[in-house]
Amino acid sequence: MQNKQHEFRILCALRRIIRSVDIYSRKLHAEHGLTTPQLICLSRLSEKNDMTLTELSKAVNLSQSTTNGIVDRLEKRGLILRTRDETDRRKIHLTISDTGLALTARTPSLLQDKLCNALAALPDEEQGAITESLEKIVHLMELTGLDASPNLLPSAQAGDDIKLPPNSQSPSENSRLFEAAQIQT
Description:
Layout: H1 2-32, H2 36-47, H3 53-60, H4 64-76, E1 80-84, E2 92-96, H5 98-106, H6 111-120, H7 124-140, H8 155-158, H9 171-180
């Protein structure tokens, strides 16, 4: 009976985390017209206002093709600018526009920033225990091979149609399938 109570509490806690990410994302989109990945890119550009696409994709832990799609949409809205390098015409620099800066100033803190700040306030032992517990859950769910971004992106918002295979497949097969899928944001 005790096992069932723990299982239920763990599943409820995971569901609450997923739900809070989803609520945050929906609120962000409704109030500011941005998706979480778009805000993450704008935030990084506001911190370091001159980046190449490669630098931005590394800074936000997304693939270049995904980041390029985000940049296209942000540029269409006038939130960022692309300019060619004066000396190397192949290189394109990304900068945040005044409109983009004003928008990022009005948006709430990124959810992962809030989490990082809250975690930093905890003692090292407690941070370690949380880390080990979450890594154990990932392992129990056979998701160890996934290369996951630290960004808190709900899959519905990110636009991916990734279906994890049944539990009968190994973590390495999960990893291969996940890497083959392309998230389009």
